[in-house]
Amino acid sequence: MVIHEYAGIVTELEDHDCPHCGKLMEPWLTPPETGWGVILVCSNNGCPFYLDSETDIENKRDDSHLGCRFALDPGNKYKPVNVLAVCPH
Ligand SMILES: [Zn+2]
């Protein structure tokens, strides 16, 4: 189990390994406008899902280096969601 605490709010999350790279996913507090709250995110910069996504995003600017990280939404039965993130490379 993973425990995430922010501003006095404790969220308990199940342990989930990323199905793409096998790494333990980490809790991440999403921006309020997403309405997701705390989700689990694969933060592995070498994750195949993340690296492959960089070329898949439509209408992205060539220099934006945006990629999708694999994430699960605990508020929706751990359904997979995509989280946009800036690629480090
Ligand atoms: Zn991964």
TrEMBL record:
Name of the featured protein: Uncharacterized protein
